[in-house]
UniProtKB/TrEMBL annotation:
It comes from Heracleum sosnowskyi. It is found in: Cytoplasm. Its cofactor is Mg(2+). Its main location: cytoplasm. It catalyses: ATP + H2O = ADP + phosphate + H(+). Signal peptide: none annotated. Binds 1 Mg(2+) ion per subunit. This is Vesicle-fusing ATPase. Keywords: ATP-binding, Cytoplasm, ER-Golgi transport, Hydrolase, Magnesium, Metal-binding, Nucleotide-binding, Protein transport, Transport. One of its GO terms (cellular component) is Golgi stack. It is an enzyme of class 3 (hydrolase). Belongs to the AAA ATPase family. InterPro entries: Vesicle-fus_ATPase.
């Protein structure tokens, strides 16, 4: 039997301290997203209106991709919650002001 473990962390030292780093045979350093990379992701996801993509991409400059997806998921829920399905199905887009609020919350933590 073969097991494949995939993990993401920004705390490699933590994995070592709890004794699980040896379970991973390969470690990749994934660079943070630059504005142009974030824009490519946002264009593919189609979660923002065309006029908001550049603003959102600029706000995501130098952000880890894992955190970007977390912020997008938070923002897709909408201010009242429960809007993600409409956003991901293309029926609705993420409000840029709500996105900025979610981004501020995520950066704090």
């Amino acid at each position: 039997m073969f097991w494949l473990y995939i993990g993401t962390t920004s705390e490699l030292n933590f994995l070592d301290s709890v004794g699980v780093q040896d379970a991973f045979s390969v470690t990749y350093n994934v660079p943070t997203l630059k504005t142009e990379d974030a824009k490519k992701v946002l264009v593919q996801l189609k979660v923002f209106s065309e006029e908001d993509i550049d603003t959102a991409a600029e706000a995501l400059n130098d952000m880890p991709i894992k955190k970007m997806y977390m912020v997008l998921e938070m923002a897709a829920q909408g201010e009242e919650g429960g809007e993600a399905e409409a956003v991901y199905s293309g029926k609705q887009t993420i409000s840029i002001s709500h996105f900025h609020e979610c981004l501020q919350d995520a950066v704090r933590y």
